[in-house]
Amino acid sequence: MSEMLKVEHIEKYYGNKDNITKAIDDISFVVQNGEFIGIMGASGSGKTTLLNCISTIDNVSAGHIFLENQDITEIKEENIAKFRRENLGFIFQDFNLLDTLKIEENIALSLTINKKDAKEIDQKVKEISKKLGIDAILDKFPYQVSGGQKQRCACARAIVNKPKIILADEPTGALDSKSANDLLSLMEEMNQKMQATILMVTHDPFSASYCNRILFLKDGKIFNEIIKGEKTRKEFYNEILDVLALLGGDTRDVR
Questions:
Q1: pLDDT digits over 196-218, tens only?
Q2: Which of 217, 182, 207 is nearest to 46 (CA)?
Q3: Residue 43: predicted pLDDT
Q4: CA atoms of 125 and 86, how far apart (whole Å)
Q5: pLDDT of residue 177
Q6: Coil, helix or strand for 120?
Q7: How many CB atoms are located within 10 Å of the residue 173 CB?
Q8: pTM, whole model, 2 decimals?
Q9: Which residues on neighbouring strands pair with residue 168, listed in sequence order?
C-alpha cells in the first residue's frame, strides 16, 4: 500500500508565553492508502486537535503533515478552502445536511462548488447513491427521509468527490445504538468496497472495533497503537478495552 497521510513531529500550543497549553506533543504516524484508523483517548488528550490540524481547520505550531506528498502545513490561507473541497471528505456528528436542498443536491454539493460538468455531477451522484442504496430518494428533502437515509446521504456526500481521506469526529456520538451500528457498517463498507481511507476520532470502544488500527493518545502524545489483523471484532473490542484500562479511560460500553 502507498502512503496517503504522513504526520511528522507535529506540536500544537495554545495560549501565550505566560500560560501555554501543549495540546499535541511531538506526534508522528503514517496512514496507508485504504486504511480505516481510529484515534482514541480521554477528553483533553488531543484527539480533536489532531483531527483539526489534519483537516487544516487548525494550524500546527511545529512539524509537518503530508497528504500524498503535499505539505498541507504550507498551504496559503486563500487556497485552504479549495484544498479541502478537492481532497477531504467529512462525516459530521449531526450530518450537516442542508434542509433547503434535495438529497441529490446535498450529495452533489462539493462537485457543484468545484464547478464540475452537470453530466459528470449527475453520473457521480447516481453511481454513489446506488452503491449506498439511496437512489430512490434523490428527489426528496432531508426532512422527508429517515435518520438512516440521512446518514447514507452524508456518507455519499463525503465520498462522491473521491477524496484522498475521509475525516470523522465522533460520528456516532449523537446516535442511538441501531443507528450507530448502521453508520459504522456503512463506513466499513466504504472502506472495504470503495477503498476509502478513513480517520475516525472516537471515545467509544465499540465504534473503534470497526477500525483496522487504533492510535491511543494521552497528554498529546501517542500512548499505544494496536492493529486488528486477523482478530474478530469481538477480540479487537476486548483488546481496546484492555488498552483503555491502562490508559485510565472510560471502559464502559457506551452504545
A1: 999 999 999 999 999 999 999 99
A2: 217
A3: 86
A4: 16
A5: 85
A6: helix
A7: 15
A8: 0.89
A9: 91, 200
Cell of 33: 492508502
53, amino acid identity = C
Q: Decide: residue 19, CB within 10 A, 0-12 exposed, 13-18 middle, 19+ buried.
A: exposed
Burial class (CB in 10 A: 0-12, 13-18, 19+), 107: buried
Q: Residue type at 238?
A: N
**Cell 511545529, located at residue:** 62
- Nearest-angstrom CA–CA distance, 171 and 73: 25
Sequence-separated (6 or more) residues with CB below 8 Å from residue 66: 3, 5, 6, 8, 72
Residues in the chain where the model's pLDDT stays below 70: 1, 249-255
Residues 152 and 145: their CA atoms lie apart, in Å, by 11
CA distance 200 to 41: 12
What is the pLDDT at residue 24?
95
Cell of 197: 481511507
pLDDT in the model for residue 165: 96
DSSP 145: S
Q: How many CB atoms lie within 10 A of CB 120?
A: 10
8 Å CB contact between 142 and 106:
yes
Region at 46 (left for phi over 0; alpha for psi -120 to 50; beta for the rest) = left
Contacts of 206 (CB under 8 A, 6+ apart): 180, 237, 253, 254, 255
Query: What domains, with CATH codes, occur in the chain?
Result: 3-95+165-247 (3.40.50.300)
Residue type, 223: F
